[in-house]
Structures are given as C-alpha cells and as structure tokens.
Write a structure and sequence with these properties.
- 31% of the residues lie in helices and 22% in strands.
- The chain is α/β, with parallel strands linked by helices.
- Helix 1 runs antiparallel to helix 4 (138-156).
C-alpha cells in the first residue's frame, strides 16, 4: 500500500511538472526577425506567460533585439533600452507579467515594422485560473484516479 502511495505522488508530480513547463516561441517562425515580418499578426495568435521564451533569429549586426518601454516602442526609439543584443540569436525569457516591447534599433527598421509587443500573463501557458479556486492540472486528477484504482485493487489482494 505504501508503494502505491509513493507511485501516486510520483505520477502527480510528473503530470503537474509537464503541464507547467514553459513554451519557447521562435519570433516570426521560419521567417525570423526581419524587416518584412508582421509581428502584430504573429503575436496575436499566441498566449504568452511568465517563464516562456522568445527566440529571435536574425543576421548578427544587421539587426538588433532591443527591449524598450511603451514610449520607446511607440516612437521607435531605443535611446534608453531595457536590454539590447545584436548577436544574431537572442533568447529572451519573459520574467514578469505585463506587456513587453521589442524593436530593432537599426535606423529605419522599427519604422518598417520590425517591432513586437507581447502581453505576458502571470498564469502559466495552458491553465485558466478561477478566482479563489485551488488549481489542479487536469492530468494530475486523471493520474490520481488511476493510481487510486490501482491501490484499491492491491488492497483487495
């Protein structure tokens, strides 16, 4: 019986961990971070959460990934960047909820549309919290039911 309980705990933890893992998004998909991308449309079909990663692929030194304030985003100004990289492969981990703004700081590129705004939720991807409710991933409850059934069968023998 103790072994069944340990199995149950291990399965619940494994199911919960898998569901809570972050998502990695390649900005612009196969096109990457270029002046011809439509990043508003790209972002509109995604749900970003704290812990998710944005991967920007581009030609190093020909472009940059510059995180800016809303004002910097609206005016295409990277004068006071929150972060800046031009390595050609930039990975940003979304660490806080709220809207995050990115531009290419190469003159003219942001004005041509090389800018991205992502709304980041505090809730991990794939979960939908309700006020005051204890959140249990769906997989965990299925695993718990299966393990409980196995424990009952073992107890009968």
């Amino acid at each position: 019986m103790a072994n069944s309980l340990l199995l149950l705990v291990a399965l619940v933890i494994a199911g919960s961990t898998a569901l809570a893992s972050a998502t990695t998004y390649t900005v612009g998909d196969s096109q990457g971070w270029t002046t011809t991308g439509d990043y508003s449309t790209w972002a509109s079909s995604k749900s970003f959460a704290v812990g998710d990663k944005l991967v920007f692929n581009y030609i190093n030194k020909a472009h940059s990934v510059t995180e800016v304030s809303k004002s910097g985003y609206d005016t295409c100004s990277g004068t006071n960047p929150l972060s800046d990289d031009e390595s050609g492969s930039t990975v940003i981990t979304l660490q806080t909820p709220g809207t995050h703004y990115f531009i290419c700081n190469v003159p003219g590129h942001c004005a041509e549309g090389m800018k991205l705004a992502v709304a980041v939720s505090a809730t991990p991807s794939g979960t939908t919290p309700s006020a005051g409710a204890l959140q249990v991933p769906a997989m965990a409850s299925i695993v718990a039911s299966a393990a409980a059934g196995a424990a009952i069968k073992l107890a009968l023998f």
